[in-house]
Amino acid sequence: ITTLMFTLAILFFGYTQRQKMPETYLPNVDIPVVTVMTTYKNGSAEVIESKITDKVEEVISSISELESVSSNTSRGISVVVAQFKLTKSIEEATNDVRDKVASIELPSGVDKPIIEKYSMNAAPIITLFVSTTSDDVQNLMLFANETIKPKLQNVRGVGQVSVIGLRNKILKIT
């Protein structure tokens, strides 16, 4: 009878505690992943690999709680992705990567590295497409950039609005 009472007590307390547990369908998980993107116009993949990617990987690999480093190098661009253990905050990981990358001496002509943190919450929620019945695509794009974009940016909770496909006219005087 003692075993039966003990089993019933465990079932009772287990059931009551299960009812009190919070449950979320899409939990807010910040996976500490930081990317370093560096561009070098007219640089071949081999040059970028040896002069940029290898140096970035080397300094990032000394950061604590690093889980993995991967990279992709192609003509004109280097992308290094650093993934940290879940115990490290995304802000701390980003700051550590930024500090380490700032210490690298890059060749002249290399653009300043862009350091971004990856966020599951940064995935697009809404994608809008605009079109026009006239042939004036430039006016449509200006309307999207100068009218629609600012209105969407003013909505509370909106993190970023991007207009893709905008063709800026460039006037070159030589």
Primary descriptors:
174 residues, alpha+beta, 4 strands
Explain how this protein is built.
The chain has 174 residues and is an alpha+beta fold. Helices cover 37% and strands 17% of the residues. It has helices at residues 2-20, 45-60, 90-102, 137-153; strands at 33-39, 66-74, 77-84, 114-118. The chain has a 4-stranded antiparallel sheet, with helices on one face. A hairpin with a 2-residue loop joins strand 2 (66-74) and strand 3 (77-84). The longest helix is centred in the first third of the chain and has 19 residues, at 2-20. The model has no long low-confidence stretch (mean pLDDT 84).
Give me the strand/helix succession: HEHEEHEH
**Total number of strands:** 4
Q: Provide mean pLDDT, rounded.
A: 84
* Main sheet makeup: 4 strands, antiparallel
- The fraction of residues assigned to DSSP E strands is 15-25%
Proportion in helices: 25-40%
Based on helices, strands and strand pairing, what is the structural class? alpha+beta
Distance between the termini: 98 Å
Please give the order of strands in the largest beta sheet: 2-3-1-4
Question: Rounded to an integer, what's the Rg over CA atoms?
Answer: 25 Å
Low-confidence segments:
none
Tally the helices: 4
Looking at the structure, what is the overall shape? flat
Question: Gist?
Answer:
The chain has 174 residues and is of the alpha+beta class.
